Model the fold of this input.
Amino acid sequence: MKRNFIKLFSGLAIVGFSALTVSCSDDDTPGDQGENPNPPSETERWFTVAGGIMDETPGNGNGGTVIYSVSKEDIEDPNHEIRLFENGYQVRSQRTARLQASEDGSTMFNIAYGGDSGGEFSKYLVEGGDEFVPTGGVVNISQYAGTAPRWVKLFDGDQTGVAMNVTSPQVTTDDDGNYLYTRGTATAITIDLQDALISNNNDFEVPLSEEEEAQGFHIFRLDTPVLNEAGDKIIIGTWMRKTDPSTGENDTNDFERLGSKAIVLDYPSLENPQVITSTLGHGDTSGYRSFNSFLAEDGNIYQATQRDPNGSYILRINSDNEYDNSYDFSLDSALGVQGAYVESWRYVGNNIAYVMYRHDGSAPSNFNDGGSSQSFLARVDLSAMTAENVDLPYDADMYFQQYQGFAVYEGNVYVSISSVGQDGHVYIIDAETGEATEGAQLINEPGNHFVGVF
Done:
């Protein structure tokens, strides 16, 4: 497999609260500093396909991430072949990278996940094929967010990325050794995507109620922040866990979960953390590898749940930055299944979204030691609270758990559809009707899988 590795810079960025210096190698070309020597025409729009490479276990993506870009004409041509794993460009990341794209597809953003480069932010100009030109240097946020930070791009015109981290929660007892609570220290970081520097960061604790903490509940992970309509708050998803107060160890028994929670921070200061709670959902709201909350045109934020004992819900947060507990949207009810689990989803406009999910009874997959099950894609109407599957060539080994990229362009949604280790196609879906049309061929390799179109 051909893998093109980006040039390593001679020094990592030195970052602080007020300034950032980036050190680059002496042989950088003008293009490396942000000038695109072969800019696309005004009518051109690059689409970047991403894939996860296996290490020793098919479908785990722990061998890194490759990307490859094609034109709109090519991605919509069912006779065009995209040999991503043969010809693609390997981005900086030991495991599956956390990728984001500019709204026009001309720039890719990445924070490496794990390994020696974990926590390094990189930015690339998209020039077609395997040509991705590093620009703006490398920004290392690992000292704030660790080597495996969670992050997304805010929907603010490609201006800001937000990374989140929570240190390993620690148990606190009183002087007599009696359990009090478990807490970690959270870190929020904003990244200026245009100038490639850290613009702000803040550390804080997020205590739950005294009663909740006495039972051992605590925030294990934060992820997928979204900016509210007023632009003065970000809403951050949470992953909750529970300590057994009698042992001080992680509670692995069945227990009654709390209502779904999110953290509200003032923006851009990243201060004044507040906890909000849904009485409808009882799952986590942190997502996994992609966006999990979206601001719609109606001014509300819509957020999915995971690990919900009643199946995933779509929750609504109103303009007062509180959960709207009158909005009761159960995906189990809408899809007619049990145990729906939102793996990845994307809001596409006009209160329509596309949701990748699995459910109880999904066919067991033949990879990953049998620990995975078949995924599906549904068109969801957030106003009517309805959902129906998109007509696709489903297969037991179709796996969307690590899916990240839905390209939305000119009323269409572009998704990569294939089973682990099998060839597939890009599908172009009419956002309003859900009708799917077969696009370019995706040529796969054993154990690998496609994780998005950007």
Q: What stands out?
A: The longest helix spans residues 210-214. The chain is about 5% helix and 40% strand. The helical segments are 72-75, 84-87, 142-145, 210-214, 331-335. The longest strand covers residues 233-244.
